[in-house]
Amino acid sequence: MTGTMDERPAHEQAQHSVGELIERATTQLSDLVRQEMRLAGREMVEKGKRAGRGGGLLGAAGAVSYIGLMALAATGIAALSLALPVWASALIVTGVLFAVAGVLAALGRGQLARAVPPTPQEAMDSVKADVEEIKERAHR
Question: Do residues 80 and 88 touch, judged by C-beta distance below 8 A?
Fold first, then answer.
């Protein structure tokens, strides 16, 4: 009974086939993971570039806004100088700007005080409560 069929018993052929299938699946899975990692890397590089461009544009917007604020201050001084001496107008506008800066500084300090210490206090308290609950149940 010679022919084109493999002369090994059927269960050996099946085992060999299963082994080959597992080897192929492992290789394909490994290749797939590598491809996904390369894709993720390329995606992160692209997002990093966009974030850099966005940050640069926001910085430029801040600089132009600062110049605009200075122009607005000059406009305020010029408008007040129609009714007051120029020095008095400049003093009033400067005082208003410092008052706004003081309010912003106080608000910022309050926000920072609520952010310190930089630990997830609620999460830590929750974990401590869980540990206490587990200890309590263990002693029962």
Answer: yes
